[in-house]
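Molecular record:
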Amino acid sequence: MSLTMYSAFIPVAIRTLQNLSAILAKGAAHCEARKIDPNAFLSARLYPDMFPLSRQVQIASDTVKGAAARLAGIEIPRYDDNETTFAELQARLDKTVAFLKTIQPAQIDGKEDADIVLSFPSRTFEFKGQAYLTGWVLPNLYFHTTTAYGLLRHGGVDLGKADYLGGA
């Protein structure tokens, strides 16, 4: 079986978000066990000009739900970006995974050459489907997941590479 757009994306994104949810669960347990205010982690940043942990999780979610919808040619689900607890962030990831599970291979496979346009206030990006997936979506998913992992690990949460990668 050859690698398809669907197989390179949807199962990978689901697994990554589920692993991120498990990482957040460890963060919440760490806070509870040590009587740490969870906001100390949720608002933590690696550097003042970077987004906090909560926003890292939201962007990971936004990246994959937006990509799945764009590639499938359907409306992007809108989330309010109002999560303020570990549990709310995990619920957002669960909602994103549930959405990804509704996407069928036929909706994404064959979209390697589809035109994808991302418009931001200061810039517009134009991609073909495969370049969008491999050069924008997956790197952004991994960047924001890794940053969330790093913030928790830096704060003393007992995490390792196996937490990031999940079960084999």
Summary: The chain has one domain: 5-165. The longest strand covers residues 115-120.
